[in-house]
């Protein structure tokens, strides 16, 4: 299973590392291959919101096709909304992946790629009204919102790891997700 995590200038590191840590830890509890990697428009290093310098594993053009795609939030989302290669990658891959997950302001990038129309969505409380311009079915204030088609949204940074555990539970097994959560000291239960 290929899991792509988008990185970009000023992306929230907590969201990125939470997702990567969940999948790399889950790999210890299963024989299923879980290939979690970072992806960006180029392989050039970017600086995250907290100053961490990150080098993407793949540029969009060389990345394996993901089965799950995670889109973190960040303080430069407005700048990323103007980035055509990122929008094109999100649209192309977001339409075909089994799971598309966006945390906090990452929902705006998913919306800009045309991928939240008709979906139940959430984001940071201060950005909730902004989501309406992308024609969702509803904008909710829940911490995590799951759609039947594998689209998940989290309003907070801490929700990124919880969404990753949800994907592990659905794609690998609930047992592996529970073992991973216990290993990481995270309280988790499957979404209904």
Structure description:
The protein has 192 residues and is α/β, with parallel strands linked by helices. It has one domain: Class I glutamine amidotransferase (GATase) domain (Rossmann fold), CATH 3.40.50.880. It is 32% helix and 19% strand. The protein contains six helices and eleven strands. The strands form three sheets. A seven-stranded mixed β-sheet has the order 5-2-1-6-7-11-10, sandwiched between helices. A two-stranded antiparallel ribbon has the order 3-4. Helix 1 runs parallel beside helix 5 and helix 5 packs antiparallel against helix 6. 49% of the residues are buried. The mean pLDDT is 95.
> Can you summarize the main beta sheet?
7 strands, mixed
The CATH architecture comes to: 3-Layer(aba) Sandwich
Q: Summarize the amount of helix as a percent range.
A: 25-40%
If you compute it from the alpha carbons, what radius of gyration comes out, rounded to the nearest whole angstrom?
Answer: 15 Å
The CATH class is identified as Alpha Beta
Q: DSSP strand (E) fraction?
A: 15-25%
Strand order of the largest sheet: 5-2-1-6-7-11-10
Number of helices: 6
Q: Which structural class should the secondary elements be placed in?
A: alpha/beta
**Would you identify the regions where 5 or more consecutive residues have pLDDT less than 50?**
none
Mean pLDDT score: 95
Cα distance, first to last residue? 23 Å
Number of beta strands: 11
């Amino acid at each position: 299973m290929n899991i792509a995590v988008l990185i970009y200038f000023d992306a929230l590191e907590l969201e990125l590392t939470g997702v990567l840590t969940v999948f790399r830890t889950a790999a210890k509890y299963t024989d299923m291959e879980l290939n979690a990697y970072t992806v960006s428009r180029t392989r050039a290093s970017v600086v995250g919101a907290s100053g961490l310098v990150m080098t993407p594993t793949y540029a969009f053009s060389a990345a394996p096709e993901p089965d799950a795609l995670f889109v973190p939030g960040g303080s430069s989302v407005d700048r990323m909304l103007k980035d055509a290669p990122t929008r094109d990658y999100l649209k192309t891959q977001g339409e075909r992946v089994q799971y598309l997950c966006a945390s906090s302001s990452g929902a705006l990038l998913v919306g800009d790629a045309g991928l939240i129309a008709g979906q139940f969505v959430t984001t940071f409380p201060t950005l909730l009204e902004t989501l309406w311009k992308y024609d969702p079915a509803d904008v909710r204030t829940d911490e995590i919102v799951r759609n039947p088609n594998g689209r998940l949204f989290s309003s907070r940074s801490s929700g990124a790891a919880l969404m990753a555990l949800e994907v592990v539970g659905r794609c690998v097994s609930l047992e592996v997700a529970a073992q991973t959560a216990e290993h990481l000291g995270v309280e988790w239960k499957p979404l209904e």
